[in-house]
Amino acid sequence: LFTKFRTLFPPTPTRCQTCVTMRDLLRGLQGMALARPWEYGTRDALARLWAHESIRMYDDRLEGDSERVPLYDEINRSLQATFKVDLDLSPDQTRLGFGIVVRPGSQSYCDLAVEMVTGKKAIHDALEHHCEAKVGLLNFRLFSYAVNHTLRLQRALLIPGGHAICV
Questions:
Q1: Separation between Cα atoms, residue 90 and residue 93, nearest integer Å
Q2: Which residues are 110's β-sheet partners?
Q3: For residue range 12-42, what is the model confidence (pLDDT) as tens digits?
Q4: Segment 75-130, tens digit of pLDDT
Q5: Contact assessment for residue 27 and residue 159, using Cβ atoms and an 8 Å cutoff
Q6: β-pair partners for 15
Q7: What is each CA distance from 117 to 16, 114, 120, 123, 166, in whole angstroms?
Q8: CB of 48 within 8 A of CB of 15?
Q9: Most buried residue among 73, 137, 139, 147 by CB atoms closer than 10 A?
Q10: In Å, what is the CA distance from 161 to each residue of 34, 50, 60, 107?
């Protein structure tokens, strides 16, 4: 996928964000290393994790669905060829989301698409706790777009030396 992305989306002076390096590949592997092997013992779970990291690495660099469709097609082809799994991913609905969920007595990197209720509740509880401590109780709703971006930001910051630019 790394070499295919470089072929499909070569960097140009007006599109320097599509320049990917071995460092980006390493970041994806570090993201996969956040998962505990015993939580991802099945081929389907590992394929979902790989797809999530691939989308996280490459999707944000592209502009519009016209560029995203070839990326998702290539991810689907790679999933089928490597993992023998058909997730039928598209830019409209990825149905993937991994993040750290803190439960009483433990914390685990889990597939929040499978546990979306748990994930939304964990994010909601953390925001509520922060707001109570800083500014008082706020009433807010988490929608899937906000949850997805919160998970991406959390993932980026969990990797050693990780950082993110929020615009």
A1: 6
A2: 99
A3: 888 888 888 888 888 888 888 877 776 667 8
A4: 999 999 999 989 888 887 655 666 666 555 555 566 665 555 556 676 677 777 76
A5: yes
A6: 12
A7: 38, 9, 5, 10, 26
A8: no
A9: 147
A10: 14, 21, 19, 21
